[in-house]
Amino acid sequence: MEHLEAQISSMCPLPFSGITGEIFLKAVSTVVAVHCTILDDFHWPPDNSREILEEGISFDFIVVGAGTAGSLFASRLSNAFPSWKILLIEAGDDPGIDTEIPAFLFLNQNSSNDWSYKTHPDDNSCLGFKDNSCIWSKGKGLGGSSSINAMIYLRGHPQDYAEWYNLGNPGWDYENLVTYFNEQEALFKITDPEFKGYDNEWYKILDNAWNELNFTSHNYKSHEAIVGTKKTRLLTQNGKRMNTAKQYFKDTDKLFVMKNTLVEKVIIDPLNKQACGVVVKHKSGIIMNITANKEVILSAGSIATPQILMMSGIGPKSHLDEIGIDCHQNLKVGQNLQDHVLLPLFLKTNMNMTTSTDVINILLLQYMLTKTGPFSNIGLTDYMGFIDTERNLDYPDIQFHYFYFTKNDNFVLKPYLEGLGYKIEIIEAIEDLNIDHDFLGIYPTLLRPKSTGEILLPKRPLTAPIIKANYFQHPDDVRTFLRAIDFVHKLEKTSIFREMGIELLNVSIRTCNEHLFNTDNYWWCYISHMATTIYHPVGTAKMGPRNDVNAVVNHDLQIHGISNLRVVDASIMPTIPGGNTMAATLVIARKAVDIIKKHYDSKDEL
Ligand SMILES: Cc1cc2nc3c(=O)[nH]c(=O)nc-3n(C[C@H](O)[C@H](O)[C@H](O)COP(=O)(O)OP(=O)(O)OC[C@H]3O[C@@H](n4cnc5c(N)ncnc54)[C@H](O)[C@@H]3O)c2cc1C
C-alpha cells in the first residue's frame, strides 16, 4: 500500500489522508489488481511430461497436437473410453494471458503462441512482403490455432460438404454433419436467438450499401456462409476468448498431457505396416519413444501433420528419396494444399472515429472490470459479405472481411502491417495515406482458389517445412479478384458510400506505379504484392477413396495402407470450405470420436 501511495503521489502530488484517502487507495488497488480477473477459475491440465519421461509408460491412444481438433478429440475420446490410457502431446505450452482478450487478436501473431511459418518465395505472390514470403501464423500451445485466431464461427456452405461426399467420402455430406455443427454451437452457446450483437455504427452503413445492391442481411440468423451480408458469432464467453482446449478440457480429467514436447515422427513397423508409437523430443532435450497399443492420431494441423507423416516415411516416395527417408507407403502427403487468400484494399472515409488515449484507457479499464465494451469483441472484423462473382448464384466465391483504422493511427495500423510482414516501403506508403483519413479496409478473400500448393521437407528435415503456397499459379484466381474489385467499385457508387466519401485509395508500390491506377495491369501487380493468407491452409492429407491417387486417408480418417494411424485435423479436408475453417475442423474432430467409437464398439472392446 505504501509503495502504491508513493507511486500515486509521484504521478499526482495530492496528499493522502484520513478515511477518504484510505477509500481512495482501496479503489486504486482494486484497479491495479483487476488484470488478475482475466484469469478465471479454469485451470489448464497439469503437465505429465516428467513422469512419462522418467517412467516411459505406454498408452492405448497417442494424440499428437492439442490444437483445435486435437483437444476436442482427445478429451471426448477419454470420456467415451474411461478405461483407456490416452496421451495428448503438444509442442507448445499453456496459452498466454494476452490470448484471452478478443480485441488483441492480432497481437498474438509472431508471439510465443505462434509457429510463424513463412512461405517459400515465388514470382507471383507475396512480393510486397519481407523476403518475398508471407507469414503463415499457426497456433502453438494448448488450443493450437484456436488460441490465436480471430474466433469467427462459420459453417461454410452446405454444398462444400456435398463436394466432400461426391469425392468418395460417405458420411461427410452436410446432412450427416449438421448434428455435429448443432452440438458444438449449443456447447459454445452461440445459438442464442436473444443475442443482440455488439455495437458498431459501421454495420448499419455497410448493410445499407449492400442492401442498395439488392443483397440480404442475414446477420445472426444462421452460421452458413451464403450470399449476402452477415454478422458472425465469435467463440467467446463472458467477453473472453473461448479456445477449444478450454472448452473441452473442462469436461475431462482423465487425459495424460505432455507439454513442450515435439513429436518428431511416428514409429512404423515395416513388416506389418503398422503404427506402434511416436518419437518425441522434450524441451529439456530428452528424446524418447512412447508406445501406442491401439492407435496414433495426428492432429498437428495442416503444416505439421504432413511434416510428421513425411518424417515417418508415408510418401511421396520421390521426395523422401531426395531427403534420404525410407518410404513405407507412397502417398501424396503434403500435396493438395489449399488456402484462402485475402487482398487488403484501403478506402478513405470522411468519418472521424479517432479515440483519444484517455478514452482508450478508460475502455480498457471497463473491459478489465466488466469484460464488456470494445475490447470484448473484434470490432468490424466479425462483419462479412459474400458474393458469387461469376454466376450470380448462391454459391459464393468471394467473402469480404472488413477492418477499420482511424486517421493517423499510431496504435494499431503499423503493428498490424508489421505483424503481417509487409516491406517497410509498403507500410510507409499505407501510413502516408492514413495521415489525413480514417480507413475502411475491405478485404476480398478467395473462397475457392484453383491454385494448389505443397508442403515439403527441408534438407534438414526437423527444421521448418518448406511451404509452397503457389498463390495465383492459376490465373483464374486473379480474375476472381478482379471481379471482386469491380464489386467494390459498385459499393463505392452506393448513396451511403458517396455520402461518407468512401473511395478506393492508390497505395504507391514502386513496381506497380508504372501501370495506370485501377487498370487490370495495375491490379495484377497489386495482387502479387499485397495479397496474403487468411490462415486457412487445409488439404495436405486429403481424405478420399483408395482409387483417388491424391488421397492420404480414407473416410474413416485412416492412412491408406498403414494400420493404427489416423489424421484428425484440417489436413484431411479434400477441398477448402467456403468460410473460415475452424468450425469445419471441430466437426471433423467430433465425427472422428464417433468413427473410433463405432470401430471399437464393433470389436467389442469397450
Ligand atoms: C491467425 C489465425 C486467424 C484465424 N482466424 C480464424 C477465424 O476467425 N475463424 C476460423 O474459423 N478460422 C480461423 N483460423 C483458422 C483456424 O483456426 C484453423 O483452421 C483451425 O484452428 C485448424 O485446426 P487444427 O486442429 O487443424 O490445427 P491447430 O489448431 O493449428 O493445432 C495443431 C496443434 O498441433 C501442435 N503441433 C504441431 N506440430 C507438433 C508436433 N510436431 N508435436 C506436437 N504438437 C505439434 C501445434 O502446436 C498446435 O497446438 C485462423 C487461424 C489463424 C492462425
Automatic annotation (TrEMBL):
Pfam families linked: GMC_oxred_C, GMC_oxred_N
Chain positions recorded as FAD binding sites: V263
GO molecular function: flavin adenine dinucleotide binding; oxidoreductase activity, acting on CH-OH group of donors
UniProt keyword terms in alphabetical order: FAD, Flavoprotein
Cofactors: FAD
Gene3D superfamilies linked: FAD/NAD(P)-binding domain, Glucose Oxidase, domain 3
Domain of life: Eukaryota
Domain Glucose-methanol-choline oxidoreductase N-terminal as annotated: residue spans: 139-162, 301-315
Alphabetical list of PANTHER family matching this protein: CHOLINE DEHYDROGENASE, MITOCHONDRIAL (PTHR11552:SF147), GLUCOSE-METHANOL-CHOLINE GMC OXIDOREDUCTASE (PTHR11552)
Family affiliation: Belongs to the GMC oxidoreductase family.
Protein name: Glucose dehydrogenase [FAD, quinone]-like isoform X2
Annotated organism of origin: Vanessa tameamea (Kamehameha butterfly)
